[in-house]
Amino acid sequence: MEALEAIHTRRSIRQYKDTxxxxxxxxxxxxxxxxxxxxxxxxxxxxxxxxERAVLDAIPDIHPYAAMIRQAPLAILVCGDExxxxxxxxxxxxxxxxxxxxxxAARALGLASLxxxxxxxxEREKAFTELFGLPEKVRPLGLAIVGHSDxxxxxxxxYDESKVHHNRW
Length: 169
Hints:
Layout lengths: L2 H7 L13 H11 L11 E6 L2 H6 L15 E8 L9 H18 L3 E6 L4 H11 L5 E10 L22
Antiparallel strand pairs: 1-2, 2-4, 3-4
């Protein structure tokens, strides 16, 4: 699949089949994530790969918009290590790029995905930190839910000229 096709047909999918994904597929998703740009080349991302059904099923108890995870075979918690002295503040941008790469790689592989935000909601950050035993300087950004789905991938026109300014506001 061409890169632009993956970008234009990617959708937030909320219905999944519980068909397991291969280790090779999971590795491809993580490899795509780790190919994202990063400030200073520090690669602050850390990933928690979640395939255990009991853990997946517990997530909606701490995230009000993650009920669809009960159908999905995989979630990847994208986290950022903010301990870098010079570039620690950029972890959100770096890890957001990694998250987007996961979603686009999933689409390119014919898989459905959804980004559930965690960062910016202190109660969610605390709950995910506790559930997954994250170290002190590692912060959860969001959860990529991935799996097979029968939901069609169609292109939706998103371009809006009113949001574009040239040379100045």
